[in-house]
């Protein structure tokens, strides 16, 4: 089985700042949500956890799996999408003048500017992770429980590959902070 969890809440989540690959830690609310998720899912056993090396995902994985013997393996392909110089911006969702806005309103029309990452690149690295890490393990042992702890856009990309979601519905796959979703 494959499960995915989005990291707990950060100060930037709270302030509605655009997060990407800037390494923002969890706030206490995010830590508590990871602990609550652990208690809620205490009957689930995970054989392995793959996590983004960014602090917010790393800390979420550690808190969620505390007290278990589940190994956590960090993989750079699970980092959040890079929004380049727009990371930390406010109003990106509501301001059509913000170049990142189209990503959230019409992802199929998104063209990155500056050093922002393209959806194509995000898709390639998430597909690479699924093809090289997840699918071989699921094929070898369908009863193995694999957990991925990552981020909003990266999670949408993984889920979109698995569900074969059209790009215009990319954000339909967004999961909440510390929400655990079973995929395979």
TrEMBL record:
Tree of life domain: Bacteria
GO BP, one annotated term: glycolytic process
Binding site for substrate: 6-13, 56
Name by which UniProt lists this protein: phosphoglycerate mutase (2,3-diphosphoglycerate-dependent)
Source organism (scientific name): Butyrivibrio hungatei DSM 14810
GO MF: phosphoglycerate mutase activity
Similarity-based family: Belongs to the phosphoglycerate mutase family. BPG-dependent PGAM subfamily.
Keyword field: Glycolysis, Isomerase
Its EC number(s): 5.4.2.11
Catalytic machinery residues: 7, 80
């Amino acid at each position: 089985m494959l499960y995915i969890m989005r990291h707990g809440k950060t100060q930037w989540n709270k302030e509605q700042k655009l997060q990407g690959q800037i390494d923002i830690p969890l706030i206490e609310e995010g830590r508590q949500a990871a602990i609550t998720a652990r208690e809620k899912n205490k009957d689930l056993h995970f054989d392995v956890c793959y996590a983004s090396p960014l602090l917010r995902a790393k800390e979420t994985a550690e808190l969620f799996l505390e007290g278990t013997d589940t190994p956590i393996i960090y993989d750079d392909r699970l980092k959040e999408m890079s929004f380049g110089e727009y990371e930390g911006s406010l109003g990106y969702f509501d301001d059509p003048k913000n170049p990142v806005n189209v990503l959230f309103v019409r992802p199929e029309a998104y063209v990155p500017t500056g050093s922002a990452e393209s959806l194509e690149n995000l898709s390639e690295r998430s597909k690479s992770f699924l093809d090289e890490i997840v699918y071989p393990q699921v094929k070898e042992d369908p009863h193995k429980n694999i957990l991925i702890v990552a981020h909003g856009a990266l999670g949408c990309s993984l889920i979109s590959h698995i569900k074969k979601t059209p790009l215009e519905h990319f954000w339909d796959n967004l999961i909440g902070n510390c929400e655990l979703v079973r995929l395979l």
